[in-house]
UniProtKB/TrEMBL annotation:
Shown residues within the full chain: 422 to 700 of 700
Organism, as annotated: Merismopedia glauca CCAP 1448/3
Residues making up the signal peptide according to the UniProt record: none
Protein name: Two-component system response regulator
Domain of life: Bacteria
Domain EAL: 24-279
Amino acid sequence: RAKAQGKGSYQVFDTQMRDQIVAASRLERDLRHALEREQLEVYYQPIVSLVTQETIGFEALVRWNHPQRGIVSAAEFVPIAEETGLSILMDWWVLKEACTQMKRWQQQYPERSNLTISVNLSGKQIIQPNLVEYISQILADTDLNPQCLTLEITETAIIEKPELAINTLGKLKELGIRLSLDDFGTGYSSLSYLQRFPVNSLKIDRSFVNRMDVDSDSLEIVRAMILLGKTLGMTVVAEGIETPAQLNLLQQMDSNHGQGYYFAKPLPESESTNWLKLK
Ligand code: C2E
Ligand code: MG
Ligand code: MG
Ligand code: MG
């Protein structure tokens, strides 16, 4: 009897796996079409100085404007895009779009010419042989000051080919581009790597920020991460600030910048422009 049950549960497992695979390949096919049919859109989430509360820039976050499902968030399809290699095309598109938009904002609001745009790069992207040339080309085409572009990378993306990645990051930095380590604390964090990555800023993952006002361990971890980043001469950005309590704690601990629903959700282009008029 136990055997029969065991077999049954394998069947359930197989069915679930098959459903997942079918769903994933459907998503892949749809995503390919989305790229071709221009169903992707870039949203912009304000990044705010925790000292002055001024908006210092935006993070570009891709969205899929799906004909049936409406706006689909990056968390739902970026992992598939990365697995299938579609993220390479997608990231180039997002980068070009985001740099173009930032240039437009700087022209529209000349007094805000220090605004920066942060763009996420997938692990696949970092090991592209023509990455540096391609990014220089986009900067030239859009006429954006390289100092106004921040590329966000994760430790997990670097860890597969650390030597190659560190080399590439060094070249990007020479161009004047700023680099930021995203989701800090969740990846394969190694302090010796942290020292070798030529990054300008650290983004503390929102899973820590989220809990810091209710969980003292998270609070102490955030405190230690801020101290570590600042000691290494980096700018610290706290992700996922949702409450005034979290904001107060981060300000007390001297985090430089912050981002989160407390300030604003990622906004479509027109709403981001309105946001800039006010902040
Ligand atoms: P990420 O780069 O760490 O981006 C932050 C994510 O946290 C975004 O989710 C953002 O909407 C969400 N977020 C920001 N503030 C809050 C908050 O206060 N509360 C909560 N609950 N969430 C908040 P999103 O846009 O779904 O993106 C998920 C991930 O997908 C990103 O994480 C990034 O790793 C990836 N991603 C997004 N756009 C791109 C892209 O253009 N290219 C690549 N390669 N990856 C991207
Ligand atoms: Mg990011
Ligand atoms: Mg993050
Ligand atoms: Mg992430």
